[in-house]
Design brief:
6-stranded antiparallel β-sheet; 15 strands; globular
């Protein structure tokens, strides 16, 4: 299929409900309070006038609204569980004394590519985004001006329109906004199909793709060809890794059946409540500042006409006061801070969010006071985390192996690397992290 025609709504109407869900996960993952507020302000979750905490409108004065970056912490923990130790990349045919020289050369080149492109760091970045927005695309790219070898460029799942068949990725269109002046939006679309990559530049509005422009009219796309024919045998130069399936909120949308869900899918309300608890806690601290209440006669008039009280003054001028009120003087007023109540509520919410995502509380440092346990005891308490880790590894294995094979194929076809066989599929062996 070609790129979308001029004037098409963007994103496509069928994908708007999907992208609304992905944008909510992306907002929690970003940790940006402004982005979270923007996503939630236009949505109604409860029949109450205010709705969720982050959906409230502040009409008079902007209140202190704190955000606890638990969602991004969970995404980082997910990446650490998968790739804190780099997996072994093995060409099975290169093992043993009888391995052919071609297989051994392919293994050596795979190890060299992994080191030169910083594969371990790229996979850590990809795994964090995968847990944060529900999935990530492993895109194999090449640019002779940037490197003399292929590269692996992860793309987060909330900036793509994929096409699945029986859960397998058949094509995908990535997009990015290059310019937005509030009236005209310039977008770059990159469509991946079996055997080719298409690039398009469009000038439209926030909800319309608009007219297609020559790629040369923008600096960021001037060097891109309109079509790239992929080398023979490469097929689709991108693979999709779902974080966890099924995506429960998207299960009724057949075109989104192949997507994964974020770690905190279903716990968005708990994340919202956690921010409300911490905001209330800090509000208690702010309101509990000591206040000194003094009679009006104790105040001095400043040059600007305002009244003030000098707390450093040691001698006061005698006042003409009623003896009945002569004992009236400065009064110290300080409210209590409900620390224990807020802490218990916050820890309870954190534990519920963590367990809903498939992790043990101990993975996040909860319930470990005074414990010094053996490896066996630790595994028993962390079993839920290890089950989730193994489940994610299964989702990662096949797409990662195929992406590594694509790297070898592009290295051979585009950069003319001799002596390697791109038909040999690498095998990923996970380390015990």
């Amino acid at each position: 299929m070609p790129l979308p025609p001029d004037g098409q709504p963007w994103p496509p109407p069928a994908w708007r409900p999907v992208l609304e869900v992905l944008s909510e996960w992306a907002a929690w993952y970003s940790g940006d309070p402004q982005q979270i507020a923007e996503v939630h302000a236009s949505r109604v979750y409860t029949p109450t006038p205010k709705g969720r905490f982050w959906a409230q409108e502040v009409r008079e004065e902007r209140r202190v609204m704190l955000h606890v970056p638990l969602a991004s912490d969970m995404a980082a923990v997910s990446a650490d569980l998968l790739f804190s130790e780099p997996p072994k990349l093995v060409i099975p045919e290169a093992q043993g004394e009888r391995a052919s020289s071609e297989a051994k050369a392919t293994q050596e080149r795979l190890d060299e590519l992994a080191e030169r492109i910083g594969l371990h760091n790229r996979l850590m970045e990809a795994a964090e985004q995968c847990a944060g927005v529900g999935g990530v695309y492993l895109r194999v790219v090449w640019d002779r001006e940037a490197a003399d070898h292929p590269l692996l460029a992860p793309v987060p799942g909330d900036t793509a329109i994929p096409e699945f068949r029986w859960g397998e990725l058949q094509a995908v269109t990535f997009w990015r906004v290059l310019e937005d002046d509030g009236r005209v939006v310039i977008r770059h679309l990159e469509r991946h199909e079996p055997g080719r990559i298409l690039h398009g530049l469009y000038a439209g509005t926030h909800d319309q793709l608009g007219r297609r422009m020559p790629l040369s009219e923008h600096a960021q796309t001037a060097d891109l060809p309109a079509e790239i024919v992929l080398p023979e045998g490469v097929g689709l130069a991108v693979r999709y890794v779902p974080n966890m399936r099924p995506a429960r909120r998207l299960r009724r949308l057949p075109h989104a059946a192949g997507l994964g869900q974020a770690d905190y899918a279903g716990a968005e309300g708990l994340l919202d409540a956690l921010d409300e608890v911490y905001t209330s806690w800090v509000r208690d601290i702010r309101l509990a500042r000591a206040r000194i209440i003094v009679p009006k006669e104790f105040l001095e008039r400043a040059e600007d006409g305002s009244l003030r009280f000098d707390v450093e003054q040691e001698v006061f001028v005698g006042l003409d006061m009623d003896p009945a009120t002569a004992q009236q003087g400065p009064t110290l007023n300080q409210f209590a801070i409900r620390t224990e109540e807020h802490e218990r509520a916050a820890l309870h919410l954190i534990e519920r969010i963590i367990t809903a995502a498939g992790y043990s509380p101990q993975t996040f440092g909860l319930h470990i006071e005074g414990r010094a346990e053996s490896g066996t005891a630790l595994r028993i308490r962390e079993r839920r985390t290890f089950v989730t880790q193994a489940r994610k590894q299964r989702y990662w294995t096949a797409p990662l192996e195929e992406a590594l094979q694509l790297l070898l194929a592009v290295d051979r076809a585009v950069f003319g690397r001799p002596g390697i066989n791109p038909n040999l599929r690498p095998k990923v062996i996970w380390e015990d992290s």
